[in-house]
Amino acid sequence: MARVKRFLIVVFLILAVPVPRAVAGETVLADPPPSLDNPRRIVLSLTSKDPAVVNRILSNSVNIQKFYEMDNVELAIVAYGPGIRAVLRTGSPVSARIQSLMEYGIEIVACGNTLDAIQRPVGDLIEGVGHVKAGIPEIVERQLRGWIHVKP
Question: What is the pLDDT of residues 93-131, one digit of tens each?
Fold first, then answer.
């Protein structure tokens, strides 16, 4: 009998103490919530030439933009190392997707050091793809300015 009584007390205490939690399937937004004036800023690394990996990263960027809505998020993808191949005008298996993402406001940036290493000029990039001298420092500096780095 005492055992049942203790059990009922424990169950009562568990149910009586409010525990903040998200409704199943919802993400709780941190304060302040993203807005036009205060968007989430997210930079993704693109470091693979494997089409499946590249497509996954591009899909991740679309999903992030859908979640926050276009006006509430700034997204950038920095391509360096083998990932640079995805942003080249010739040979990219995802050229059309890259162009489409840029049309939806997703910034694509190529690493100049990688271009130099593979002896490709900036002119070989898909039209609209930006470039910086060094991809990793670009990510670091964005992080220091408050961007969140995601390396899928």
Answer: 999 999 999 999 999 999 999 999 999 999 999 999 999
Residue 25 Rama label (left phi>0; alpha psi -120 to 50; beta): left
Query: For residue range 10-36, what is the model confidence (pLDDT) as tens digits?
Result: 555 455 555 555 556 789 999 999 999
DSSP 8-state secondary structure symbol assigned to residue 125: B
- Chain center to CA of 145: 16
Q: What is the pTM of this model?
A: 0.83
Domain ranges of the chain: 31-150
Q: Give me the CATH topology for the region 31-150.
A: Hypothetical Protein Ychn; Chain: A, (3.40.1260)
The Cα 73–Cα 37 span in angstroms is: 10
DSSP string, 43-97: EEEE----HHHHHHHHHHHHHHHHHH-GGGEEEEEEE-GGGGGGGBTTT-TTHHH
